[in-house]
Amino acid sequence: MNEMLFDVIFKGKFINKIDKPTAVLHFSKLFKIPTAKAEHFFDGKPRAIKKSLNLEKANHMRAALKKAGLRVSLQKQADDKPAELTMSMPGVRLVNEVAVQAQKITATNFTLDQPGIQLVKFKPIEKIQYDLSQLKMDETGIVLVVPKAIAPVDIDTSSLTLDEVGSVFAHKKETLEPVFDLSSMAIDEVGAILVEKKEVVAPVINIENIKMLD
End-to-end distance of the chain based on CA atoms, in angstroms? Predict the structure, then answer.
């Protein structure tokens, strides 16, 4: 069984803790190329920076690039590689013609009718007969369904009373206005800085001890 091989794919991505110039510098140091040439690897296009590595070497290379702040992915190579293409001389036939053997069709069992002969006969669909002997029609004005009378609901209103016109049903409750103690609060002058800006120092990643396997 053949060993699985992988390509290390780089798309110009790096971690958020470093900026692009730092990432380009780390890339140029790891692969020992000028920074101007390393810039081309950060255009977003996927590139195989190392090919045909076994899983152990591919993971080692990915770990080394990760320590330098660079993001890569591993892509498994296809088992069946296409054969290399070569150019033939002009006039060389690339594909040979395949001779198709003629097949003999026996037509002794076929017969032809004379012109005007009907090949398919139309079969009429029988008309469906409905038995209506048991149905009866009432005279005009006959009520088919007698409506059912609904008895009126008896509601006892003897205990209900009505107030006079203009009576108040509910009294409005006054809500007291809240009192806030502002004696301990102070207002700065216009233009005063409320929060001091804290500068974050950019991390420095030491890649001197990182080595790449051949």
Answer: 24
Q: Where are the domains of the chain?
A: 6-76
pLDDT at 121 over 80: no
With a CB cutoff of 8 Å and minimum separation 6, the contacts of 175 are none
Q: How far apart are CA 26 and CA 44, in angstroms?
A: 17
What residues contact 56, with CB distance under 8 A and at least 6 apart?
A: none
The tokens 């107030």 sit on which residue? 163
Burial of 79-113, coded b for 16+ CB within 10 Å and e otherwise, reads: eeeeeeeeeeeeeeeeeeeeeeeeeeeeeeeeeee
Under a CB-based contact definition with an 8 Å cutoff, are residues 190 and 54 in contact?
no
Distance CA 136, CA 94 (A): 88
Inform me whether the pLDDT recorded for 85 exceeds 70.
Answer: no
6-76: CATH class: alpha beta
What is the pLDDT at residue 84? 45
Q: Who wins on pLDDT, 147 or 30?
A: 30
